[in-house]
Design goal:
The protein is mostly helical. The protein is built from 16 helices and 5 strands.
Length: 318
């Protein structure tokens, strides 16, 4: 669900529709039409992506369009013309955006595009950009929950925006982005998600780094002990050490949390059952591990934040 895809979506009825007055001007150099009635099954066979598959609208809904005559067309912004009836569009815009009929919502979103081009100041009176942004972010959270790992190959642009929006000052948008990131780390497999988050841990924007660190820290425990072994606990402790020196406290706190999690997992892996008790194989194994995998300064930093007595870390890990 990239920003470009949202920006270019336009839905309208095929019959009796005047492109020259309502939507298009000039030649449509990049127009892609999906006839849901005629080509839906064929398109569905060609694509397994949840974002490219034709939508089965079933009943026509409350907009009066017949299912067989509904088309989806993608119009470039430069080809969008002025609205034929601006007042009517304004008076019904919010209601149509809140409609349960997907055709009405798409038409309303296209009207927002037209209004933002031709009536920018007036649009701000009824629908602030933050409201549109928050609604889009809430939709992404629902998509994560519905499609899980199916979105992993196409959500890179969305991930960048969620990390950015969750770090902005507007609480209205920030809270929705935070919730979407939590949904992302909850519903997407950590083995697939961690490589996507990794580049953002070194982003030049410290706020994006902080949010990425928090998501990374939340995802690691979901790997489980076997998953962490497969990913590489040495790689994970190096990532935690690199974040401990970050300038933002959120990044450092996420790194501390990750280091504690990794210490617990490592210590548990060094515990062997001995009759009715648990015997630690090597009381200094965590310290030795850190010195073996990290630079001296990084090892000291990790050991400083994981100085909890080892006996307290012998816990079950699911």
């Amino acid at each position: 669900m990239s920003g470009k895809a949202l920006g270019d979506l336009n839905v309208h009825p095929a019959a009796g529709f005047d492109k020259s007055t309502a939507l298009g001007k000039g030649s449509l150099t990049k127009s892609y039409i999906e006839n849901i009635n005629d080509n839906g099954p064929e398109l569905q066979k060609k694509s397994s992506s949840p974002f490219s598959a034709p939508i089965n609208i079933g009943d026509a809904g409350s907009n009066g369009l017949e299912t067989g005559n509904t088309e989806v067309e993608y119009i470039e912004s430069e080809n969008l013309a002025d609205l034929p009836d601006v007042d009517a569009s304004f008076n019904t815009l919010l209601a149509r955006l809140d409609s349960k009929d997907w055709v009405s919502v798409c038409e309303a979103l296209n009207n927002v595009r037209q209004l933002s081009i031709y009536y920018r100041e007036r649009l701000l009176e009824i629908i602030p950009r933050s409201a549109v942004c928050k609604t889009a972010i809430m939709a992404s959270a629902d998509i994560f929950k519905a499609y899980n790992d199916m979105v992993i190959d196409s959500f890179d642009p969305l991930l960048v925006q969620l990390l950015l929006k969750s770090s902005q000052d507007k609480r209205f948008v920030c809270e929705a982005a935070e919730a979407a990131l939590i949904a992302m780390t909850t519903w997407i497999s950590p083995m697939l998600l961690l490589p996507k988050l990794l580049p953002h841990l070194t982003n030049r924007n410290p706020r994006i780094r902080a949010k990425a660190s928090m998501c990374f820290s939340r995802s690691v425990p979901r790997l489980g002990m076997e998953g962490i072994r497969a990913y590489g606990i040495d790689k994970l402790i190096q990532i935690a050490a690199s974040q401990l020196s970050d300038q933002l406290p959120e990044s450092r706190e996420a790194a501390r949390t990750l280091a504690m999690q990794l210490q617990t997992i490592y210590v548990n892996s060094q515990v062997s059952p001995n009759e009715d008790s648990l015997e630690l194989v090597d009381a200094d194994s965590w310290e030795a591990f850190c010195h073996a995998k990290l630079t001296p300064l990084s090892a000291q930093a990790i050991l400083r934040v994981t100085s909890t007595p080892k006996e307290a870390l012998v816990l079950s890990f699911c």
